[in-house]
Amino acid sequence: MPYPEFFVAPMREELTSLGVQELRTPGEVDAAVANTAGTLMIVVNSVCGCAAGKARPGLALALGHGVRPDRMASVFAGFDADATDRARSYFIGYAPSSPSIALFRNGKLAYMLERSQIENRDALAIAAELKGAFDKFCAPASPSTPSKSMEEVTRH
């Protein structure tokens, strides 16, 4: 049985206030993942203590970083079960866990932070982990310098 809306509303608000879009149906999840350009983060939110004291605060800290996903979304485990199941169907190779945070790059799963990697860390450590993932998967590629130009630069 899902939690009552009044119970989860403040937990939803913690993410929506950061610009994270809620995905409440399987169709909304499919549409978010189908928009393959750039990066998409999907957070599996939950009422558990490690979501409240670690995952959501860590994510909030990480989003203050200069590099972040192009699009951010969440599903709520234990409440929007069908949307959560659909999101998890895209987390190929990972067992269901909540909370968890997935990053997709151009429609492909690129990174996964599972509950087992959250529950034994504090919010600062989770933020550092996420910032590293954002730098690796969300940062725009820097233009490469053609080798001739580099040779000319180093000759002078």
Summarize the structure.
The chain has 156 residues and is α/β, with parallel strands linked by helices. The chain is 46% helix and 17% strand. It contains 7 helices and 5 strands.
> What is the beta-strand fraction?
15-25%
CATH superfamily: Glutaredoxin
Largest sheet: 5 strands, mixed
Q: Could you list the spans in which at least 5 consecutive residues all have pLDDT below 50?
A: 145-156
Number of E strands: 5
Query: Strands across the major sheet, in which order?
Result: 1-3-2-4-5
End-to-end gap? 71 Å
The radius of gyration over CA amounts to 18 Å
Count, helices = 7
Structural class: alpha/beta
Look up the CATH topology: Glutaredoxin
Global mean pLDDT: 89
Domains, number: 1
Q: What best-fitting shape do the alpha-carbon axes yield?
A: globular
Helix content: 40-55%
Task: Give the H and E element order.
Answer: HEHEHEHEEHHH
| CATH architecture tag | 3-Layer(aba) Sandwich
Under CATH at level 1, the class stands as: Alpha Beta
